[in-house]
Design goal:
CATH architecture of the largest domain: 3-Layer(aba) Sandwich
Number of helices: 14
Bound molecules: ligand SAJ
Structural class: alpha/beta
Number of domains: 2
CATH class of the largest domain: Alpha Beta
Largest sheet: 8 strands, mixed
Length: about 400
């Protein structure tokens, strides 16, 4: 079995590596020559614990090689990004470009799978493009959609152990894709059609976004009502059928803060809660920035000097060095722009240096600051003792215990 992975990013590369480790001969294709070169040298260009060792193993064994062009294979996987165009409209042009690239290589009996997060109907659209170009392959190749659902930081385990949803354009296509994934997935493979599988991916991340929005809305209400939101959620969750997530400084990353728009763009009238959740989670970051700005003004009025402010954390979630779409980065930038007299110390213990922010060690920043804004619940911050002599803005529950 030989498979071609189109896209060596955060999902394509780990999936290609795991498939190669399970004996499938892999050609990983990327349009970026640097990514291809690094991959062939066994160097991981993404951040994922334990993955580089696996990459080196499969490169040395010769089961994985990277290239800028595909090779004739038995299966093709589209794992490229689906960014936005215009006002949060999904842009499927990368999926289409990757599909068009593999069309000349397709032959009877091949499997073609889209893994990229995609708006509903994308697999049907790509099917049409394929058969328009190669009408002789109609009913002779297998086409399916199979989304990934791994959590960054735990990819090696989750790629193998998570259940997966597989939706073919025909039941034969579903079966063929199941056969492929069963070579390395130990979780259960659930059969459906392509549209449902596409919607399932969007639903999973929208569901989490809506649940986080509920927690974030509670946090803003509790702030006004002078109630500790962490205690409140802990108590409410003692109910056997209540399970509220944790509020934070907003929702970041490339998935939860993005995928709901793939539903709202296509179903604007119907997706009321999903759209509102996006608004609430975006607003939460703005609200946190305003809280810091107001704390600074109050400090100036009270002490007649500008305070030192520590912005604690830049990553999009705790204990990672991934800053993509991080609300903490947005809040820090906004505070720096509006408090240009204040001495602002930016802290991110998981990153050595940053091209925009001058970073300060977390202990030093905590010691020096008059106002401390906890943006991300990194483990380092949880060891800091609560200091009554500082203004502490705990947006992520550092001191919830
Ligand atoms: N967050 C909160 N409160 C919470 C949980 C998370 O504010 O209680 C915030 C985080 O701080 C972060 C954002 O949400 O800013 C997203 O973090 P996350 O851990 O919820 O999710 P991601 O983006 O790392 O990964 C998600 C996962 N999806 C779901 O949990 C439904 C993962 O399984 C998907 O594979 C991934 O999106 C993806 O690639 O789609």
């Amino acid at each position: 079995m030989k498979a071609c992975f189109m896209g060596l990013g955060y999902i394509g590369l780990p999936t290609a590596i795991i498939a190669a480790k399970h004996g499938i001969k892999i050609v990983g294709v990327d349009i970026n020559p640097q990514v291809v070169e690094m991959t062939n040298q066994g160097k991981l260009h993404i951040i994922e614990p334990g993955m580089e060792e696996l990459l080196q193993e499969v490169v040395n064994r010769g089961t994985l090689k990277a290239s800028i062009t595909p090779e004739e294979s038995d299966a093709y996987f589209i794992v490229v990004p689906t960014p936005f165009k215009g006002n949060h409209e999904p842009d499927t042009s990368y999926v289409e470009a990757a599909t068009r690239t593999v069309i000349p290589y397709l032959k009877e009996g091949d499997l073609f799978v889209i893994e990229s997060t995609s708006p509903v109907g994308t697999t049907e659209m790509m099917t049409k493009i394929i058969f328009d170009e190669r009408p002789e392959l109609k009913d002779k190749i297998y086409i399916a959609y199979c989304p990934e659902r791994v959590l960054p930081g735990n990819v090696i385990h989750e790629l193998v152990h998570n259940d997966r949803v597989i939706g073919g354009i025909t039941s034969q296509s579903t079966e063929k894709a199941m056969e492929f994934y069963s070579r390395f997935v130990q979780g259960t493979l659930h059969k459906t059609n392509a549209r449902t599988a596409e919607m399932c991916k969007l639903t999973e991340n929208s569901s989490r976004d809506v649940q986080i929005a509920f927690a974030n809305e509670l946090s803003v209400i509790c702030d006004k009502a002078n109630i500790n939101v962490w205690e409140l959620i802990n108590l409410a969750n003692k109910h056997p059928r209540v399970s509220i997530l944790q509020p934070g400084c907003g929702v970041g990353g490339h998935c939860i803060a993005v995928d709901p728009y793939f539903i709202t763009a296509d179903f604007p009238m119907e997706s009321q809660i999903i759209a509102k959740a996006r608004e609430i989670n975006n607003y939460k970051a703005f609200w946190c920035a305003e809280k810091v700005e107001n704390a600074m003004l109050r400090f100036e009025l009270q002490y007649h000097r500008t305070p030192v402010i520590a912005m604690m954390g830049l990553a999009f979630k705790p204990d990672i060095d991934d800053l993509r779409e991080a609300p903490a980065k947005y809040i820090t930038t906004k505070v720096m722009q509006s408090c240009n007299n204040a001495d602002i110390l930016v802290v991110e213990p998981n990153v050595q240096e940053h091209k925009v922010f001058k970073l300060t060690a977390y202990l030093e920043a905590y010691e020096k600051a008059d106002i401390v804004a906890f943006l991300v619940a990194h483990k380092e911050f949880k060891s800091l003792p609560y200091r009554e002599d500082k203004v502490i803005l705990d947006f992520c529950g550092i001191y919830k215990k």
